[in-house]
Amino acid sequence: MTALAPARRAPTNKWLVTVSVTFGTLMGAIDSSIVNVALPQIRGAVGATVQEITWISTGFAIATVLVMPLTGFLGRLFGQKRVYMASLFLFIAGSALCGMAQSLWTLVAFRALQGFGAGALQPTEQAILRQTFPPHEQGMAMALFAMAVMIGPAIGPTLGGYIVDNYHWAWIFFINLPVGVLGLLMVWRFVHEPEDIRLANLADADAVRRNFDWQGIVLLCVGLASLQYFLEEGQRDDWFESRTITVFALLAGLGIAAFVWRELTARVPVVNLRLFKDAVFTSGTLIGGVMYALLLTGMFLMPLFMQELLGFTAMQSGLALMPRVLVMMAITPVVGRLYNHVSPRLIVAFGILAFVVGAWAQGHFTLETTSAGVVGAILVQGVGFACLFVPLTTAALSNIERRSLTDATGLNSLLRQIGASAGLAIFATLLDRFVVQARHGLVAHLDPGRPEVIARLGATAAGFAARGYDAVTARGMALGALDGTVARQASVLGFEKVFQLTGLCFLAVLPLLAFLKVKRHAGPAPHVEVAIE
């Protein structure tokens, strides 16, 4: 370095950078699910109906997906670090306001504010870690990111249940404040934008301002907001039986189609859709979307199965799911280290097969299934998910230029979020239909003239009569008990079918692995995080 060269800041320890940017992502991931367990208490506090209270989750989800694809655009205008800090501040402020909200619609508005902050946290952290870790450690970087993204939704319901059982519901929001402030201070102190990224953003910012893509932003907002509303509310309104849902489906289709056309023809597009020309990025992102859909579906369905059919309490079901979280935490760093030595296609294929084995085990759950049976199945799936996220996110971004990483991570995060919403919507709808079909099938075998049915009703009625009920009442109660048994068995059959279907759906993405070819980086590379004073 010559005497005339500007002074360089010494590279910050990459682990300090990792810890700094992980606080926000972890909180955002937890908040996507922690509120759900508190909805009954919140509903009573703000005087909302069952239908109205769902807007607390819907508003957050819509705001989140709107920001994710715009992360690269915002980074070019204001800088990655500033975008991350502004998003984290917005999330903290939204959390504080949510805890103080006194009415439904102020709470919905503040949850949307939270969502706008949370939307940019995941993509920006992912890009920062990719730019901070050298090429041969990218697998480990994505392992650390994966632990925050996957574990957040897993521990959210358990943490929320504990807070609601022991404290006021507002603390599910207030708990973010000290953690968020600590994360904000650490990002300010330890995270510095790489010089090559800073210069690239400065060069691009002028072109963005001169050719501001207002049309693209408007079309993006209309298309994604309509799509997210359609996915979040469609199940409750019976899908296309509702005129409102039909209108939003049309708006989503037309808005997204117009947005794609606009971005492919704009001089300076707000979202770089041309990244999907890279087959590795496209295949990794699509598989990741399916993976997240099945991960969130399992996290939604398993507590329902355990509480409604096996008689678990909310805390017991949360504890039964914890081993999956623990095995994911244990295995994800190992997978990160293996990434440079084993083909990502092999790791992903193993992860898919492990998930399918777990789904097959879940497809054989009965009313006699114990906690050990539940834990065994979800442990296998935990191993599968741990083997999926790291190679998928690492490989998907392997061919992306450093200056385009924030655009790519925004799209990658968006597809995961849309996949999660679509998965929940599809499988929740299928569960209802499978239960109805199973009930019809079971009722068809309950012929009043069959000796087995007569004997069952007689024995049950006799049991009620022995407790002092008259014959007519005992007969009616026996019929009710039989109906309850049929309903429970139909629910079990419906859950079994959905669990089996999730496994088959994941097998269907195996052909996409043919495109998941990555270039290996030989040998260590210098740490890349530098900045000029």
Number of domains: 3
> What's the overall average pLDDT, rounded?
83
Q: Please mark out the parts with pLDDT under 50 across 5 or more consecutive residues, or reply none.
A: 1-7, 522-533
> CATH superfamily name of the largest domain?
MFS general substrate transporter like domains
Sketch the topology as an H/E string, one letter per element: HHHHHHHHHHHHHHHHHHHHH
Radius of gyration over C-alpha positions, nearest whole angstrom: 25 Å
Coarse structural class: mainly alpha
How many individual β-strands?
0
Query: Would you give the CATH topology of the largest domain?
Result: Growth Hormone, Chain: A
**So how many helices?**
21
Strand content: under 5%
Distance, first to last CA: 15 Å
Which percent bin holds the helix content? over 70%
- CATH architecture term of the largest domain: Up-down Bundle
Largest sheet: none
Folded structure, characterized:
The protein is built from 21 helices and no strands. It is mainly α and 533 residues long. The chain has three domains: 14-213 and 266-435 and 498-515, Up-down Bundle (Growth Hormone, Chain: A); 214-265; 445-497. Residues 1-7 and 522-533 have low confidence and may be disordered.
Give the secondary structure arrangement, pairings included.
Layout: H1 14-34, H2 39-46, H3 50-53, H4 55-67, H5 71-78, H6 80-100, H7 104-119, H8 121-132, H9 138-166, H10 171-174, H11 176-190, H12 195-210, H13 214-233, H14 243-265, H15 279-308, H16 314-338, H17 344-362, H18 371-396, H19 405-443, H20 451-466, H21 471-507
